[in-house]
Amino acid sequence: MSDALLSVRELHAGYGGEDILRGVSIEVRRGAFVAIIGPNGSGKSTLLKTVYGLVPLRRGAIELHDEAGTAASLAGKRPSAITALGLNMVPQIANVFAELSVLENLEIGCLPVRHRLAERLESVLAALPLLKPMLRKRAATLSGGQRQMLAIARALMSDPRLLLLDEPSAGLAPRVQDEVFALARQVNALGVTILMVEQKARQCLTIADQAYVLEQGRNRLEGPAADLLADPEVIRLYLGAGSRSAVPG
């Protein structure tokens, strides 16, 4: 059985007449926690959106592998079809239905596997029990951290093998950011493979297994996250020597 779950090769994609991604390649192993970092405009979020079918790819290949290692191309597929294959995404903004209840948000997240609603609801609430007392609350009344938990929970309702997280710490207070990072690691420990784009580079590298650094739409560096966290070039360019600075989103 192949160890690869997602393979992206020589990806070109963008908006209008401009390519934002110019030949990016990544591989995500089953069960891994993979981080994507880099400066503003490097193509981090565009990469996730292209994988999830929100931005059309212009050239290259995106393949999702099943348990036997058989590859299914994601090129040209809509997000709903990609979700049905076992890949889901939590966008950075507008990631919950604010006027609906927490329970209604979770029910919508289960639409790809609606016949398993009771099973998935029980499983997700067992994994994220803090949501149980909030089920009847409108999502609009939740704190920023609670909304992010709900967004992740809603994505988990479809029972994904791979979850894409687009800057989950954006706009949150430092304490809440730490809680969201811990939540992402918790979800990974449940067996869900994670591919996360994040502006808080140091924290992201601390919890990830593998990482890629993008720059100007191309691969700049890659390797085990712990190695990149200690790499003098990464420290100089993105972390700041001796500081806890973040890579701008």
Please give the largest β-sheet: 6 strands, mixed
Query: What general form does the structure show?
Result: globular
Count of individual beta strands: 10
Distance between the termini: 36 Å
CATH T-level fold name? Rossmann fold
**SS summary, helix count:** 9
Query: Would you state the CATH class?
Result: Alpha Beta
Percent of residues in helices: 25-40%
Q: Provide the domain count.
A: 1
Looking at how many chains there are and whether they match, the oligomeric state comes to: single chain
CATH fourth-tier homologous superfamily: P-loop containing nucleotide triphosphate hydrolases
Features:
249 residues, alpha/beta, Rossmann fold, four-stranded antiparallel beta sheet, globular
Note the topology:
Blueprint: E1 4-15, E2 18-29, E3 33-37, H1 44-51, E4 57-65, E5 71-73, H2 79-84, E6 87-90, H3 102-109, H4 117-127, H5 144-156, E7 162-166, H6 174-189, E8 193-197, H7 201-207, E9 210-215, E10 218-224, H8 225-230, H9 232-239
Parallel strand pairs: 3-8, 3-9, 6-7, 7-8
Antiparallel strand pairs: 1-2, 1-4, 4-5, 9-10
Helix pairs in contact: 3-5, 5-6
Characterize the structure shown:
The protein is an alpha/beta fold. The chain has a single domain (4-239), classed as 3-Layer(aba) Sandwich (Rossmann fold). The protein is 33% helix and 27% strand. It is built from nine helices and ten strands. It has helices at 44-51, 79-84, 102-109, 117-127, 144-156, 174-189, 201-207, 225-230, 232-239, and strands at 4-15, 18-29, 33-37, 57-65, 71-73, 87-90, 162-166, 193-197, 210-215, 218-224. The strands form two sheets. Strands 6-7-8-3-9-10 form a six-stranded mixed sheet, with helices on both faces. A four-stranded antiparallel sheet has the order 2-1-4-5, with helices on one face. Helix 6 (174-189) links the parallel strand 7 (162-166) and strand 8 (193-197). Helix 3 (102-109) runs parallel beside helix 5 (144-156) and helix 5 runs parallel beside helix 6 (174-189). The longest helix has 16 residues, at 174-189. Residues 241-249 have low confidence and may be disordered.
